Amino acid sequence: MESESTVARQPIFDGRLQVTAYELLYRSGDGGSATAEATPTVLLNLLTGWQLDTLVKGTRAFINVTRDLLFQIPKAGLEVVRMVLEVPGDTPVDDELLAVLDELRAKDFLLALDNFVYTEERRPLLERAHYVKVDVRGRDDAELAAEVARLRPFGVRLVADKVETRDAFAACRELGFEQFQGFFFARPKPVAEKWLAPGKLQVLQLLGKLSDPDVGYDELAALVSGDAYLSYRMLRLINSPAAPTRVHVDSIERALVLLGVRELRVWATWLSLARTSDHPDELNRQLLVRASFCQRLGDARGEGRGDTLFFLGMLSGIDAVLGRPLDELVEKLPLSEELKAALLWRVGELGNVLDAVLGYESGDWGRTEALELPAETISQAYLAAVERGDQVMHAALRQPED
């Protein structure tokens, strides 16, 4: 019997940096890499369990499948749930494969060709696909433009895959790609200036005060209350179902009494990062999930440093939020040497947790093994962090009329 699988997600964006889907990465219960396709058990668990809704929240799920699994899906009578089946682009083409693809399309499954490079022999696959994913790494604009021109007549949606920088995203969008996958959204946006814009400088100054471990009750209350955006969003969050309290809170001082200095400080830090507007909402969500994941893994190890790990997870993305190198920003914050080492070099107990979390996000499962925790514990912590992140995003950042 196949043991429980590990699942992570990576976002797929449209040209406005709105998330349209998540690709799901797997490691089967008996090991394997992030590139391993879904097994029948994984697919069945996703469709019948709560994980799929937790992971994709109303968007589509791109799921890698093998040729053999394609033939099993129609027989299983599985209900289509916002699912895109990713067929490897080098899958051998024959009449049997084309017949099952036609059958899946007739059952309203959406089909994507993964890592696809056009050849005339693979034309029948294009005629049946809804999406084509093109690996854009190491390919110049002229080569990609030619690929787009070859694919466009087939009416498929073009997904630029392995987009690693903001410049690459802009170039692919200009070339005609419609959706984009990669870690570009979590990379600093290139800027010519050697200083922070006024709004981001204000955020950094605020982070400097919030990062001070010795910040006191009165100082923190004055700091949050004196910032209209921060106090408003904080009260929305604390009075939402996502909050740990179940009583109405009408002031930051009351929130401090209920939550304590440390917890209010970490939430104020995340809200401060989320207030900047030139990065996608998904980055705010990712930092929140990452922070919660770090915290939960620390708790699972019995370290008793959950709030510190939560804080660490959030700060790990300040370079992408503020658009400056991480080492430069870290030096401007009153952080302990332990936190600085964890952020910059992923060393020490805190750094080990952060490195495991970053590895999990990218499907580099081996980096989680250093934590010496059961795979099931890590997977459950991740799913709980994803669910928590979505709750808090909705509660804290939604507009007043929502």
What are the SSEs and their pairings?
Blueprint: E1 6-14, E2 19-27, H1 40-48, H2 51-56, E3 60-64, H3 67-76, E4 83-88, H4 95-106, E5 110-114, H5 123-126, E6 131-135, H6 141-151, E7 157-161, H7 166-175, E8 179-181, H8 198-210, H9 217-225, H10 228-238, H11 252-259, H12 261-274, H13 281-300, H14 306-315, H15 318-322, H16 326-331, H17 337-345, H18 348-362, H19 375-397
Parallel strand pairs: 2-3, 3-4, 4-5, 5-6, 6-7, 7-8
Antiparallel strand pairs: 1-2, 1-8
Model description:
The protein is an alpha/beta fold. The protein has two domains: 6-186, EAL domain (TIM Barrel), CATH 3.20.20.450; 198-397, Hypothetical protein af1432 (Orthogonal Bundle), CATH 1.10.3210. It is 51% helix and 12% strand. The chain contains 19 helices and eight strands. An eight-stranded mixed β-barrel has the order 1-2-3-4-5-6-7-8, surrounded by four helices. Helix 3 (67-76) links the parallel strand 3 (60-64) and strand 4 (83-88). Helix 13 (281-300) crosses helix 19 (375-397). The protein is elongated, with a radius of gyration of 23 Å.
CATH hierarchy: architecture of the largest domain: Orthogonal Bundle
* Overall helicity: 40-55%
* Low-confidence sequence ranges: 30-36
Question: What is the N-to-C order of secondary-structure elements (H for helix, E for strand)?
Answer: EEHHEHEHEHEHEHEHHHHHHHHHHHH
Q: What does the oligomeric state look like here?
A: single chain
Q: What CATH first level of the largest domain would be assigned?
A: Mainly Alpha
Taken as a percent bin, the fraction of beta residues is 5-15%
